[in-house]
Amino acid sequence: MRQKRVAGNWKMNGDQAQNAALLHAIAEQAEKTTAALLVCPPFPYLLQAVAALQTTGVEIGAQDCSAYQEGAYTGEVSARMLADLGVQWVLIGHSERRHYHGEDNALLVEKGRRAVEAGLKPILCVGETLAEREQGLTQQVVAAQIAPFLEHFTLQELASFCIAYEPVWAIGTGLTATPEEAQAVHAAIRAQLAEVDASWAEQVGVLYGGSVKADNAASLFSMPDIDGGLIGGASLDAGQFLAIANAAE
Ligand SMILES: O=C[C@H](O)COP(=O)(O)O
Fold first, then answer.
1. Residue in 6, 53, 54 with CA at minimum distance from that of residue 34
2. Residues with Cβ within 6 A of ligand 1?
3. Separation of alpha carbons 96 and 230, rounded Å
4. How far is the CA of 199 from the centre of ligand 1 (A)?
5. Which of 40, 106, 201, 206 yields a CA-CA distance of 20 to 30 A from 145?
6. Mean pLDDT over all residues of the chain?
7. Which CATH number is 5-66+73-247's, of 3.20.20.70, 3.40.50.1820, 3.30.470.10, 3.10.129.10?
8. If you take atom 3 of ligand 1, which residue's CA is the nearest one?
9. Greatest Cα pair distance in the chain
10. Is the pLDDT score of 174 beyond 90?
11. Quick check: ipTM above 0.95?
């Protein structure tokens, strides 16, 4: 049986004082939840999170990593540096990176490569825009975002991946895919993964993201192919985040 996982993507929010309070509350409650938890703070606060959560079992993710290994790439943060800090996970291809920074599949495969080389576990984010959904292209778009990874990574490498399905129109909008809409896409994702290896596909965590809150999490997480969530706004509120985590049990 796949373990439920709830990841908090803080995006570009927080400061040391706010983070301290949030991390303290998560640390206090973490052992009461059976879901695996991870938080993804902005780069400057990763060490603060590593230090605050080190004895709690809550893992740490970064929101991005460089496609380059090291060297003269001003402003970039390498996967190896993240691993060196004690980070275990990294988001690859969040829709905000795809949209605001023009990240395409070729670049994201390189980022995934650097992550795997550094021993980080990638969370590959995929999802369609509203226009694509309205044109009936959802599964086609999602499959095209996943396919390059299935092509460029071995099964052994893919074993460390999670997928996060995040319909772009549901991110930060208060609109959520219904559990049935989300389940349909998750099932299609798992079917695509099963074309590579059926037993791997049964084990991969496929998270849902997009306006998940404490009051809609349980119905989403009860669907057979939804293995937890990637939470944005609600992960900045310890009470909401932990309530979502508890809904994953
Ligand atoms: O990474 C998280 C997603 O973008 C969801 O964000 P949201 O929960 O604020 O809609």
1. 6
2. 9, 94, 166, 171-172, 209-212, 230-234
3. 14
4. 29
5. 40
6. 97
7. 3.20.20.70
8. 232
9. 48
10. no
11. yes
